Amino acid sequence: MHEYSIASEIVSNVLDAVEKNSAKKVLSVRLEIGELALLNVEQVVHWVQALFKGTMAEGAEVKVKTIKAIVQCQSCGYKGRNIPDSRDIDQHYAAFICPKCGSPEVKIEKGRECMLRKIQAVR
Amino acid sequence: MKIIKPKGPEIFDIELEKDLLAKNRVLAKGNRRKLDQSKIIAIDIMGSIGSGKTSLIKALLRKLNMGEAIGVIAGDLTTTIDAERIEEEGARVIQVNTGKECHLDANLIHRAINGMKLDGVKILLIENVGNLICPGEFPLGAHKRVVVTSVTEGPYMIVKHPYIFREADVIVLNKIDLAKAMKVNPSQLEKDARKINPRAPFIKANALKGTGISKVIEALGLE
Ligand SMILES: Nc1nc2c(ncn2[C@@H]2O[C@H](COP(=O)(O)OP(=O)(O)OP(=O)(O)O)[C@@H](O)[C@H]2O)c(=O)[nH]1
Ligand SMILES: [Mg+2]
Ligand SMILES: [Zn+2]
Description:
The complex is a heterodimer. Chain A is an alpha+beta fold. Chain A is built from three helices and six strands.
């Protein structure tokens, strides 16, 4: 539900970076969003595009790469992807319990990120 | 003859590694430093809409009975209703309106603690915006985080929102007086919570009557 605030953060970072690199126009931006991040990717893209309007990034393509979740169990050392592929309501809940030993001491190594990785621009 | 050709547009890539939640985390650390310097213990009270966050704060204020030594930051989208309800208990209250944001963030808290008279304040209670999703992602710099949920939200709140319950230092299951009428089994909710967060005390409360409030105070180390 915080897609709007994340999108504003993305847009201000993009405009900052292109200004520093004296670019004239932004062609595309690339984001990485983890599958366990609490973000609706379509809404993030929608807001970024909306906020780009009237700036030198207007019309830029917004590409999103999904980062697969990797968890590591602190009790038994299990490491791997730990979410059922279904869209169950308890999908995320299950991600916090080790599939091997049932321990909740699971560290999420990957899958929660929301990153701005690349901007393609014209000088 | 020398021809000067127009220089074509140069396309280039800017590579970044910009974590978009990092800025909030840095600001939260700054808040924590400022609170520590002022010897204030801050508690972030998160939870669902209408679960009883304001009622819990009022109950804590009554029980602790410390007057203006407790400050409260009341987060809300646009109204001052909760701030006024809290003021009745004699605490120092500041209202923070988030507008369209569904959560408080470290920057809003930074502004609130800088705009508030903190001398003499020992405890700062922060009511976050009612929401079980976003506030968990935006630490404020508080020392402890409470998540309030209530039986009237049905039996699946913890399974549906594991992130925020995992972040909790204390979990309060409120409106315990209504469990039977709602056909909700509090022990099952407790089991769901224990499974993902065995560390956080799980306290059954009735914020209107004051049931469970001393346990919350004890769990937060506020005595
Ligand atoms: N029966 C019962 N009602 C309660 C209890 N705690 C709170 N309520 C009622 O629940 C309603 C909502 O309580 P609030 O304290 O305003 O809840 P909140 O979480 O602050 O609500 P928002 O800030 O609007 O998200 C009010 O009508 C309270 O009187 C309780 O333990 N038992
Ligand atoms: Mg309230
Ligand atoms: Zn394990």
